[in-house]
């Protein structure tokens, strides 16, 4: 485990912190929250206009970024760069299970669990699904596409870039701007570097503050049903506080605590999947629909990745695909740093292919079992979930209706709640460690941030969602801010990858010269 103790003659903590990168984005987010609450209608209309422009008029930008990231990740793995080891000749720090579990749980795992239970419902009556073929085939295929290779490719290409920067080049600044140094040179120490880092931290805070808008109401509903108490803001806040305590304790004890929490998450996750698969009575349908979905995805991957719906006959890519690519791009500020950090000792090829294996194995298994169970209820006439959702307009109550069809429903809901809390806590472990690293002017690769800095971010990352609970419109608006923030993040991702290839080429050339002389 990495040490937090100051070295001899080291500057005091407050002298080592980068106050500009830490405070300006945080103040900007707080100011936006204030404006959303004071001027809800005006701020909503302005943000919707900007989001429409970016998502509708410039939507192809996000689609090109997505397919480009996927192809780039394959090139990284199978080209000459794939043999580069992140950490010279060092052995991997973590076992494959520890590494894979930390990576999966850090990558939007709680949201994956939530959407696994309901995403097919959102697509089932879309014109695009009817055009593609049978509803039960394509409503089960698109979730695998929107949470599959392209989203994970955003993580993989940046994890490689950051892992190379941290473990091979031994850079002392763990920031977006530092990853551009090979391309921008000394400009990263000036205004350009500050702009890159401020954009990154702003996107990180916006994405963090809004991710709870998706699944926290489900947690609240589940615990309300299990405990027999009324749903309220106080219950939701209590859930957030519990999550905060869990992940704060984990990050306080360092990477060892994070690894143990991630492993616990995976065991809980397996238990939930087994509960639905073995006791739900839909095993054959789950397996066969899953196989069909994977086949559909493999056969139609390129056309799904590049379909723009230029006539806007359904606006499906604008409403869904572009939204998801942008959402994952915002989360690219934190998760790839974490994956790059824990990949020490692995080659670039192992990092990319292993990342795809663990990421897609967890994601696909979740969507195939949990999603296809509900889809099976609908297809076999056991429960009209589409009708229920159409009447209530409430996804959370629809998910509870799915659980009511299971034996020991309250036990299942309790397992869901505990699993989601653990997933959220693990995701925020990664966020806290990365945000804490951003707070430093310089931080060596083998050092963890000070425990006090980690504690500050652990609390700060949770205060904003708690404040936003009291304004539903604000939560929606800030989610839109996250999508808007992805636009400049896309350009920064391009610069980071370009910088990596330039730096890695020089590194390989130097290694070849040394081996020839040796």
TrEMBL record:
Main location: membrane
Keyword Isomerase: no
NCBIfam families in UniProt: bcct
A GO term from the CC aspect: plasma membrane
Family the UniProt entry places it in: Belongs to the BCCT transporter (TC 2.A.15) family.
InterPro entries registered for this protein in UniProt: BCCT_transptr
Record lineage: Bacteria, Bacillati, Bacillota, Clostridia, Eubacteriales
Protein's UniProt name: BCCT family transporter
Spans traversing the lipid bilayer: 20-39, 59-78, 99-124, 144-166, 195-214, 234-254, 261-279, 322-342, 354-375, 413-440, 452-471, 483-501
GO terms of molecular function: transmembrane transporter activity
Keyword hit for Transmembrane: yes
Naturally occurring in which organism (per UniProt): Clostridium porci
Subcellular location(s) of the protein: Cell membrane
Keywords noted in UniProt: Cell membrane, Membrane, Transmembrane, Transmembrane helix, Transport
Membrane topology designation: Multi-pass membrane protein
